[in-house]
Amino acid sequence: MNGARTSHGDSLLLRVTKYDGEAHWIQRLRVLSDDGLLLRAHASAGAPIFTSRGEFRSRYESFVHFWRDRWYNVFRLAEPGEETALWYCNVTTPPELEGGEIRYIDLDLDVTVRAGGTIELLDADEFEEHRLKYGYPQDVVEHAQAAVGELSALARRNQFPFDL
Ligand SMILES: [Mg+2]
What we know:
Layout: E1 11-17, E2 23-34, E3 38-43, E4 48-51, E5 54-57, E6 61-67, E7 72-78, E8 84-92, E9 96-98, E10 101-114, E11 119-122, H1 124-134, H2 138-156
Parallel strand pairs: 1-10
Antiparallel strand pairs: 1-2, 2-3, 2-4, 3-6, 4-5, 6-7, 7-8, 8-10, 9-10, 10-11
């Protein structure tokens, strides 16, 4: 099990790097629930997000699902007061929690799932580029590819967290 258990209302700093250690994404989150395996957190629309491409503010509410043992996470994005607009799934190393931070390495690949059921794989070219550039170990490549398959299967079956 990676890291300490959190409680409802705790503030967490999400700190994402790429495989070479470069900062990729930093965002403040508020814990909704944590059962020791699944941690659910929230970020309000309009809250600042710091990325390698600069700061921006999302127009979406983010409801984030982190599993301590999975190679992906799922951001359910919704306009304030509206239904889900999009599930944005990041393929990553399993998250680690320490000192009020949640950290993982972003492995480029993303899966988007729309409310109508459309599933799309993004950034496969970037994954291939970084796989060669940084020399992703074979087990990392296999975990990342399996994560895409698992996300797609859950989405096709409308299973949690794609069950709204
Ligand atoms: Mg990506």
